Amino acid sequence: MVRQPSINAQHRVPLSTERIIESALRIVDGQGLARLTMRRLGDALEVEAMAIYHHLPRGKEQLLDGLVAHVASAPADTESAASHGDWRGVLRAWAAGYRTRLLAHAGVLPLVVTRRNPAALTTTAASLREVLRRGGVAEDTAAVAAHTLLGYVIGHAALEVRDTKRNSAEGAAGGASGRPPSNREDGADRAVDWDARFTAGLDLVINGVG
Questions:
Q1: How far is 44 from 51, CA to CA, in rounded Å?
Q2: pLDDT below 70 — which residues of the chain?
Q3: How is residue 189 annotated by DSSP?
Q4: In this structure, are residues 77 and 93 in contact, taking their beta carbons and an 8 Å threshold?
Q5: Residue 17 near residue 55 (C-beta atoms within 8 A)
Q6: Whole-model pTM above 0.90?
Q7: Residues 153-190 pLDDT 10s
Q8: Maximum distance among all alpha carbons in the chain?
Q9: Contact call for residues 146 and 128 (beta carbons, < 8 A)
Q10: Measured between alpha carbons, how far is 97 from 63 in angstroms, rounded to an integer?
């Protein structure tokens, strides 16, 4: 069936790649990655799905790459590192913000973890390396430390999301059976303090740079 033009079509914001990605992200955040289809995206944008292909010729593949780039690209503040000399503080602030960003867009995180779009992390990694370099860390060490820090934050966020999903599933099953959900992350039936664990691990990574 041909979609009929909306009565407000003339006032609609023009379609753009940025608008498409943002709309797709809202679908993933609200309904999950599996629910993202070109047709559902077209409905959300109030356009025919084929109109999306004018901006994303490779379709779903390019859309997913765009989602990864949108979420994973979050450079550190290299100017603060240069101005204040507190490169450790800059990296801690970046890591906390990046973790929050990844958790807020947990549906995209599996694509980031599998490095579907490695180039999406290039700018972020480069900014971390620059913060370290401006802090006096040797170039070779800065390069390794930047990728280690990036991997730590992404990996930690992935573990948090996995644990949350598992506990939610067990909670639903336990509610039906009367059993409380377990937490096997530490091999014990107790909750994990993810904030404390993240901070402790982050300190190990950053302090280990020297």
A1: 13
A2: 1-12, 82-83, 115, 168-190
A3: S
A4: yes
A5: yes
A6: no
A7: 999 999 999 988 777 666 555 555 555 444 555 555 56
A8: 64
A9: yes
A10: 24
